[in-house]
Amino acid sequence: MYYLTNFKVNQKILNNLSNYLKMEECLVHELVLDRINLSNLNYLCCLTPDIKVKKLWLRFCQLKDKGVNYLLDILDETSGKTQLNSLYLDCNGITCEGAKKIAQILRTNRTLKSLSLARNLIKDEGAFALVSVLSKFQLNSDEIDWKSMQEQKSNRILEYLMDILAQKLKEKNSPSNESINYAGLSSIEYNRFSSNILSVIEQIFHYQQKVCMAKEGLRNLKIEGFDKKQIERINKLIEGKLRLDNRSKKFR
């Protein structure tokens, strides 16, 4: 875990931190930037796809709804791959407007597992928008198109990798090849090469199950930060929404 809390931070410090996080030998998976005024700083440089940070603390950072707009770029899986699985946004002056934007982007995010929004300015309307993406919901046309495109891309990569693996296996088993060399690869190199390809194929299958295959949205996400009375009101709203949905299905 890397701490940079309650510290006088400027853009140069964040840029240096970004360069450090991008280093191959860097093993930082958790980043704490609590109590730093990030309202006028580009902290997204520390959260690019090639950075391994999976847990991010941004509490008391004066983000407000404007800062939420920048966070959407990180959480949006339709524009790139995000690694964040935990995000803490306590005490940032986020209102219903910001909560609705977060809820919208969570519709296609399948990586985030924990989100804390404690002690913000989110009322029932914003809380309901967030809670609504925790259960099944119908995908809109743009989301369906995006999922279809992702599935096509991953299928093309799978076909390419399978072709390479089949070709190398064919060359290995060819009688014309020497027993210790397979298409320019030693036995150890060949086994390592095959293992790497199989690992990538496994990752693609996992990605397809997570992102491409679902016909409905389904979020496995824990959202924290709402008091008991607000949760009770939200649950009643959800129950009413479910009853309306069931009625509409009957009349279709």
TrEMBL record:
Gene3D superfamilies in the cross-refs: Ribonuclease Inhibitor
Record protein name field: Leucine-rich repeat-containing protein 71-like
Lineage: Eukaryota, Metazoa, Ecdysozoa, Arthropoda, Hexapoda
